[in-house]
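forwarding from the other thread:

> can someone predict this with 6-O-phosphono-beta-D-glucopyranose?

sure thing
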Amino acid sequence: MTLDFQFPKDFWWGSAASATQTEGSANGKKGKDIWDHWYKTEPNRFFDGVGPDLTSDFFNRYQEDIRNMKAIGHNSFRLSISWSRLIPGGVGEVNSEAVTFYNQVIDELLANDIEPFVNLFHFDMPLELQTIGGWENREVIDAYTNYAKIAFKLFGDRVKKWFTFNEPIVPVEGGYLYDFHYPNIINFRKAIQVAYHTMVAHAKVVKAYHEDQDGKIGIILNLTPSYPRSQHPADLKASHICDLLFNRSFLDPAVKGEYPEDLIKLLGEHDHLPIIESGDLELIKANKIDLLGINYYQPRRVKAKDNLPNPNSPFMPDWFFDNYEMPGRKMNPYRGWEIYEKGIYDIMINLKENYDNIESFISENGMGVQDEERFLKNGRIEDDYRIDFIKGHLKWLHKAIEENCNVRGYHLWTFMDNWSWMNAYKNRYGFYSVNIETQERTAKKSASWFAEVAKQHGFND
Ligand code: BG6
């Protein structure tokens, strides 16, 4: 029997999570990262004043969690290594307790036939390295390369899919433009330098991986299609600039090995090109990724600016466009994000047509909902809205596959409700709900639905 939406038999079904959001930073031996520090200094910036100390206690409960993954048909799972846990301080001695922990997690996953996808950096700069400037400082590039090489040596025999960064533009936006990550700087010039150094670090690590290891290495990007309000040239220009700044600034160097000419021109015209050292561009050119992870939550809709920017306000990307609220758009009102399922297809077609159809997968997609206990029935959260959300996106992904897009899997954000940065536990995303008082995990309706989908590699409408 063929299903309405039948996916390939070797499709990757699973979910993603990150170290800071799940492990519990107070568990075990760990150096401080910027989240520990920011929470300590400004707890009021976090929803309900909840910080990263305990999160969902994966550090102690990984065995149960991996059993739960297996129970809902995961054949793959993405985690991240906490740099400040593996190497407290970011440089120097390796923490043997962390090595044991990550070894146990990896081995447990493999014993359950779940392939570990491992990411090296998920927003969690070791504090000591942020103190010397974070990605502004090239010393941090070397420290990161060293950390990555250590991780490859320790775990590369069993981990065959690696990622250098998760959403590298987010620390740039949060930390250097829009004040939602530490160090809360607002400075477009620094933002550009930080973004650029991140890509140099990425290329160095891709190089190191290919010299020494035999799996695949990639990057995870939050690709956000920039839809113009209209076909008016001014709206088209606004959306083109957004695409350059927010998507192609990482996508092009990672996949094509070079920055878009229009981006170089734009930054040059505003005297905002980063400081480039000799050899950097050759390094980026020579070290492209094998596999691209795509995080997709929402589209970006833009229009030409209604008013000229205030010349006394800081120069920002928003000098080039206004956000556009399309009438009638479908919203996830809790997170305040538009839901536009077709975006996933548009991304795939773009990759097929303009990026050599690079091997890719959906590394995050998901729906954060507040107060999910409202949907409790007989002890289970009936999250039909999440099932509809996933279905809607999978249908468009299926169409992309039918049109020969090279997409290999779908990972939900996230496996179990976890701590979400400044939003802490406000929006819940998991297949499993987590009672943050008792840490009890309970499967939601979407978990059972997904288990069937993974088993059959598809679903009926
Ligand atoms: C992605 C991140 O941006 O979206 C995750 O990789 C994050 O770390 C997820 O948690 C959902 O966003 P938020 O802000 O609701 O937690």
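The radius of gyration is 21 Å. thats all i got for now
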